[in-house]
Each structure stands twice: as structure tokens, then as C-alpha cells.
């Protein structure tokens, strides 16, 4: 049951993450990546902190402080800078598809670091899902915005940050609690982004914000940060980093729908084909036989 709840939480988190890509794509025309990240994770931290205190969750111990802060800067500062900057060059749908390289990165890095047992079924699932992403990206080159490849590469670099965070944070989350660890890490990343935004004058355009911009920024903070990353941490506590990571391939679905509705971005056959491959890959990677699941879970718990 814990494994299933972890996968479901990861899928819901990724679905919300896809809508956040659409909201970010909407904001990048009026605000730079630093300021967008400041709003997203600053608001997210302010929402998570009272919840963590009310619940009395266990905070990371002193020996984990440095690691929690370092991972917070990696995931909640460097990741959003790359993530937001990528959407200056590419569409919401393409950005989400590029982010879907996360499972492959998690699989390779996790295996290399000995953080996760590698199975044939899991590997096949990740390859199928990632192949679907590649087909969708490559077949859409003729209709892509000029310079979209820059956005794709920036989003893949963001995915690398996410993969490293997922692998390195898992043992730390187990020693504290998902929400407390996420809150502390988000505080570190948000403080870094706010300082950089202040020093670079990134908040200046906020004076001209209308209701739509404030609504998008608030949505990113409440749903794109607080809820999304709480569910991500909850999932990492209950299942393997690769199973959590492969759920991010749900991103293109919600990102494509939001992009089409909010930004009039086209929905094409290649995106649909990529989505089908993504779902097939998720099913294969997360429906391992009971015996293999037990062995993999046992191996993962020893890390």
C-alpha cells in the first residue's frame, strides 16, 4: 500500500507540475526567471511552514542541516532558474516533454551511485517513456519556436538537478519527515532566489502586475510549490527514486492542455503519440512482479 500511495502521490505531483509549466510560460513574458522562482518558492515556504509547525513534524537533525540546505539550493534555486529560463525559448508542451527525460537520468544516476536496484522491466519502461518524449520533440521541430532547442537543453539540465535531488534526499527524508525536509530545503532555495532577485532588480516589473499575473504567481506558490513538492517528498519516502521520477512524464499532458487553453499553443499528433508511449512506459515500470518488487524494495531500504 505504501508503494502504491507513493506512486499515486508522484503522479498527482507531476500533474500539478505540468500546470505550473503553463503558468510559468504565461509569466515569463512579464517577469524574469529569478523573480518567478522567488514568488513560487517564497509563497510555497510561507504556506508549508505553519502546516509543518501545526503537525509537529520532525525536522532534519543537525547532522543533516548542511545537506538539506545544499539540496535546497540545488532543487529550489538552481532548478527553477533553469526551468523558468527554458520556457523563454520553448513552449509549455515541449518544456514538459524535455523535463520527462528525468526518469532516464534518475535510472542511470541511481544505478551508478548504487542508490537503487536496476531491473530489466524498470529499464524497459523508462526507455519506452523517454523514447516517446524524443519522438514528440524531434517530430515537432518544424513547428517549434525559433531557438526552441535552447529551451529543451535548459529543461534537461533542470531535470538533472531534479534527479540528483530525488536520489540524494531520500535517506534524509526518511530520517526526518517529508513535509519538514521539504520546508527547510525550500526555505534555503527561496532565500537564495529572493536575494539574487533583489540584487539584480528582478522585482521591478511587479509594479505593473494586473490580476492575471498575481493569480498566476499565487497559483505557482500554492499549487506549483507547496502542494506539488510536498507530494513529491511524500512519494520519495514510500517508493524508489526512478518510480517517482517516471511519473514526471505525466507533465506533458497537463502542460499541453494548459498551454493550449491559456497560451493558444497547438496540440499535434506527435504530442499525443508521445503521451501514449509515456503511459505505456509508466505502466511497465510500475507493474513489476510481486517477487521482484519485494527484492527491489528490500535493496532500496538498505541504502
UniProtKB/TrEMBL annotation:
A Gene Ontology cellular-component term: membrane
Superkingdom of source: Bacteria
Pfam family, one: EamA
Keywords of this entry: Membrane, Transmembrane, Transmembrane helix
Broad class of where this protein is predominantly found: membrane
Keyword Transmembrane (UniProt): yes
Domain EamA: 5-137, 150-286
Entry keyword annotation includes Membrane: yes
Cellular compartments annotated: Membrane
Membrane topology category: Multi-pass membrane protein
Membrane-spanning segments: 33-53, 65-89, 95-115, 124-142, 148-167, 179-199, 211-232, 244-263, 269-286
Recorded family membership: Belongs to the EamA transporter family.
Classification via PANTHER family: EAMA DOMAIN-CONTAINING PROTEIN, INNER MEMBRANE TRANSPORTER
Protein name: EamA family transporter
Species the sequence originates in: Bradyrhizobium betae
Source species taxonomy: Bacteria, Pseudomonadati, Pseudomonadota, Alphaproteobacteria, Hyphomicrobiales
Amino acid at each position: 500500500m505504501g508503494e502504491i500511495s507513493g506512486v499515486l502521490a508522484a503522479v498527482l505531483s507531476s500533474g500539478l507540475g505540468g500546470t505550473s509549466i503553463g503558468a510559468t510560460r504565461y509569466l515569463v513574458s512579464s517577469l524574469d526567471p529569478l523573480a518567478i522562482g522567488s514568488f513560487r518558492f517564497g509563497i510555497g515556504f510561507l504556506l508549508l511552514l505553519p502546516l509543518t509547525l501545526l503537525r509537529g513534524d520532525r525536522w532534519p537533525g543537525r547532522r543533516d542541516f548542511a545537506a538539506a540546505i545544499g539540496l535546497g539550493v540545488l532543487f529550489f534555486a538552481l532548478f527553477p532558474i533553469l526551468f523558468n529560463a527554458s520556457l523563454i525559448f520553448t513552449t509549455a508542451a515541449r518544456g514538459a516533454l524535455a523535463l520527462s527525460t528525468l526518469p532516464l537520468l534518475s535510472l542511470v544516476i541511481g544505478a551508478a551511485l548504487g542508490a537503487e536496484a536496476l531491473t530489466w522491466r524498470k529499464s524497459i519502461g523508462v526507455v519506452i517513456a523517454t523514447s516517446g518524449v524524443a519522438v514528440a520533440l524531434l517530430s515537432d521541430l518544424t513547428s517549434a519556436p525559433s531557438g526552441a532547442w535552447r529551451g529543451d537543453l535548459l529543461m534537461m539540465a533542470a531535470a538533472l538537478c531534479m534527479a540528483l535531488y530525488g536520489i540524494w534526499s531520500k535517506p534524509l527524508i526518511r530520517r526526518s519527515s517529508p513535509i519538514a525536509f521539504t520546508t527547510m530545503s525550500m526555505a534555503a532555495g527561496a532565500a537564495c532566489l529572493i536575494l539574487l532577485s533583489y540584487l539584480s532588480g528582478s522585482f521591478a516589473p511587479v509594479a505593473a502586475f494586473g490580476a492575471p499575473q498575481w493569480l498566476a504567481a499565487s497559483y505557482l506558490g500554492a499549487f506549483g510549490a507547496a502542494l506539488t513538492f510536498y507530494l513529491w517528498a511524500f512519494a520519495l519516502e514510500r517508493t524508489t527514486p526512478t518510480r517517482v521520477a517516471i511519473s514526471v512524464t505525466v507533465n506533458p499532458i497537463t502542460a499541453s492542455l494548459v498551454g493550449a487553453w491559456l497560451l493558444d499553443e497547438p496540440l499535434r499528433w506527435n504530442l499525443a503519440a508521445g503521451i501514449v508511449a509515456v503511459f505505456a512506459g509508466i505502466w511497465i515500470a510500475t507493474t513489476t512482479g510481486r517477487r521482484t518488487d519485494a527484492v527491489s524494495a528490500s535493496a532500496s531500504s538498505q541504502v
